[in-house]
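Researcher: Next entry in the queue.
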Amino acid sequence: MSTARLSDRLSSHQPLVLGLFRIVIGLLFASEGAATLFGILGRQSSPVGDWPFWYAGVIELVCGVLVLLGVATRGAAFLSSGAMAFAYFTEHQKDGLFPLQNGGLSPALFCWGFLLLVFFGPGALSLSGLVQGRGIARETVGLDAV
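Model: Structure for this entry, 146 residues:
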């Protein structure tokens, strides 16, 4: 199999893989927020109004669900990316420059993963795409904001 043919086959699946990436990152982010707010999954809940952790939990839960469903994906991803950059620089970087040193691997990966969704959109399998009747190709090329 030639490299060009393999590349074409892989490229034809980009919308679906992007949609699956969005679903997984949204689910993981929402679970972080639920654990922070409700004290589930082996984590202590953060007291209501506790800065910044309770507010981060609200952002994680709400934006995670929006990203998971593919509703207002770009806006929710932008807010999530910024929240994770804030978390990294205020809570983790003081303990070392690199994520492996300072325990900030999750915020760093979430930050960059959400930034990817800001620029590439929701991909396939988004609720907004299904409700508005758009095809996979239209969402993928970024016309979902038009």
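Model: The chain is about 70% helix and 0% strand.
Researcher: Noted, moving on.
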